[in-house]
Design goal:
Oligomer: single chain
Distance between the termini: 26 Å
Number of strands: 32
Shape: elongated
Number of helices: 15
Length: about 625
């Protein structure tokens, strides 16, 4: 290769063709032979014509120049010209290419490959060997490739290189590379670092060195050029959602930037159906943005994953498991001496209403709590002893929702003094309407904004004929989620620990109201069940084996070959690694989601880089 300032030629010998231009010019200027004269008998007819057309026997200088320029351009093209081809490499030894190929590189991997091919092309033209050092460990555990390759072999290697859905381990990769015998035998060369622009998170993969410290360690190998992502291309990390009443509180995190940035979060079902979408905006200088995603209850149970639109990264995907979805309901068996007609019983109404959107189990207190529940429903026919009350209290503290219904027993004061009621109950109850009363059954008042039933439509024909009354108190208004038109409470609740105690002041069947006949009854039950923390299901101590994994681009794939099981008891503290890629673990009926954002509290930009490196 021959360089002339910023212009280089891959095949400079082709420029020898320029010396042929004078010969070509001489050949084009050769005079053409005179035309042969033939006597034409009718030549006298043509003698009277005036010839206005002039035929030149010489080539115009401009045409000659144009033809010579065309020939010269063809010769220059055959020489393989390159403009500023020597801008990336300045040394003479090997080219050391460090590549951040963790999850943070996946969204811009195509452009990264383009830059990589340009560097390898220059190394190939210079005849320089190449060493490739990926910073994310492979699934087998290897990190560096401490072997000198030709540029062509390095291109084949990097074309097959893919980002991994876990974090980089730069410290281990650089240490392994510098300690290899290969480095000690090599002369100084060029170090090219294709960086993701972020510092590695602390507390993952052991002790960490900062990017600045690692660059200083590589100073003995050669001068460094580092490629950083532009601010609008830096990765965004989608965090696990939090339950916020009937909605999901969505949070996204990025590194600090002076630019604003908008994203859109989509909610998907297993079959690819879009269940909802939420636009989020990072304001200038902010690192987090949050929003509430409302999904109808009948669709919420199908939620499978959340994903940032247009971003191909494992960090832009949140897999949803039973902690957000599985809401098994326990229906406490009534007293044996109370046997109403099956189709008129509270149990029948509740089972028909709840089983349309979640699983319903029936049994005693000990049996149901051991099974794992999100909601426990107790109608008026069940008497609870002190041991059962204590067990339920502890369960509520951990996030369970107790849903109680009133009835004749509670109206008479039976069980009205136990601690499982959100409010104190007056004895006797209240009858509204009837054959001997001027009053008519009361309709429902509109739900207030502090109620989980807010925005539900109340049918005009829903009325209540009887209810139990709460004793007046200073906080009764805050505990009331539903009222009758006259202002008396119909649903009251109080939070205890992570859970709730909820009381419906009428029966679960149609004995005291016609509410169970309406669609509002089902909608109210759905909203109450969504208040729970949810459950994971299965044995919490048993090992959880991989079911599906995410690749670095956020696509669901079969479990990787070296993926290991995770202890059920240690799942909450687990973090993504080559042994535990992001994905679903457990069984098909009781699966847990390990997301990449688990146990990551911050994304930090690379700072304090040495002043002598080229960026």
């Amino acid at each position: 290769m021959w360089n002339v300032g910023p212009l280089s030629f891959l095949m400079p010998w082709a420029l020898l063709g320029l010396f042929a231009l004078p010969v070509i010019w001489w050949l084009l200027r050769l005079k053409e032979s005179e035309p042969k004269r033939v006597v034409f008998s009718a030549n006298f007819i043509l003698q009277s014509l005036v010839a206005n057309r002039k035929i030149s026997t010489k080539i115009s200088p401009w045409i000659m120049l144009f033809r010579l320029i065309l020939v010269g351009l063809v010769i220059l093209g055959m020489a393989g010209p390159l403009w500023n081809s020597s801008g990336k490499l300045i040394g003479n030894g090997p080219v050391y290419i460090v590549i951040d190929n963790g999850w943070t590189a996946s969204n811009t991997w195509a452009s990264r490959q383009t830059v990589l091919n340009d560097i390898l092309g220059e190394a190939e033209r210079s005849g320089r060997p190449v060493v490739v050092i990926p910073t994310a460990p492979s699934a087998e555990g290897s990190v560096a490739f401490p072997h000198r390759l030709s540029a062509a072999d390095a291109r084949r290697l990097t074309n097959s290189l893919q980002p991994h859905p876990w974090h980089t381990n730069r410290s281990f990769a650089i240490d392994t590379f510098l300690k290899s015998r290969f480095v000690k035998r090599q002369e100084r060369g060029d170090v090219i670092w294709l960086s993701d622009g972020l510092e590695e998170p602390r507390g993952i993969n052991g002790p960490k060195s900062t990017m600045s410290e690692l660059i200083q360690m590589l100073d003995s190998v050669g001068p460094m050029t580092i490629y950083l992502e532009s601010p609008n291309q830096l990765p965004v990390l989608l965090m696990a959602p939090e339950l916020d009443g009937t909605a999901l509180k969505i949070k996204a995190r990025r590194s600090r930037s002076s630019f604003s940035r908008g994203i859109q979060v989509l909610a998907f079902a297993d079959d690819g159906e879009i269940l909802g979408q939420l636009p989020l905006v990072f304001s200038p200088g902010s690192e987090e943005t949050t929003g509430r995603l409302e999904i109808p209850s009948q669709k919420r149970i199908k939620l499978s994953r959340l994903k940032i639109r247009g971003m191909r990264s494992a960090g832009a995907v949140i897999l949803i498991d039973g902690r957000w979805l599985s809401r098994p309901v326990g229906l406490l068996s009534g007293s044996a001496n109370i046997a109403p007609q099956p189709l008129l019983s509270s149990e029948h109404y509740l089972r028909q209403a709840i089983s349309s959107f979640t699983v319903v189990h029936k049994g005693g207190v000990a049996e149901l709590l051991q099974r794992g529940l999100a909601v426990l429903v107790v109608d008026d026919s069940k008497h609870l002893d002190d041991g059962e009350i204590n067990a339920i209290e502890n369960w509520i503290e951990r996030g369970g929702v107790l849903l109680r219904f009133a009835g004749p027993r509670l109206a008479l004061g039976v069980g009205a003094s136990d601690t499982l009621l959100p409010v104190q109950i007056r004895q006797g109850g209240r009858t509204i309407g009837g054959s001997l009363s001027w009053q008519r059954p009361e309709s429902l008042a509109s739900f207030t904004t502090n109620s989980p039933f807010f925005d539900l439509t109340i049918p005009d024909d829903v009325t209540v004929r009887r209810q139990v009354l709460a004793k007046p108190s200073s906080d009764l208004a805050n505990k009331t989620w539903a009222r009758l038109a006259d202002g008396t409470p119909l649903v009251t609740a109080v939070k205890k620990g992570k859970g709730w105690k909820v009381l419906v002041h009428t029966t679960a069947n149609a004995e005291w109201s016609n509410l169970p006949f309406s669609g509002l009854y089902i909608s109210m039950l759905q909203r109450l069940i969504l208040l729970s923390e949810g459950v994971e299901g299965g044995n919490r101590t048993a090992p959880l084996f991989p079911i599906e994994n995410l690749n670095a681009f956020g696509e669901i794939i079969a479990p990787l070959r070296n993926t290991l099981a995770i202890s059920g008891s240690g799942f909450e503290k687990a973090h993504v690694s080559r042994h535990h890629p992001p994905g679903f673990y457990g069984t098909d009926t009781a699966r847990r989601a390990l997301n990449l954002s688990q146990n990551i509290s911050k994304l930090s930009n690379i700072n304090n880089l040495p002043s002598d490196i080229k960026i």
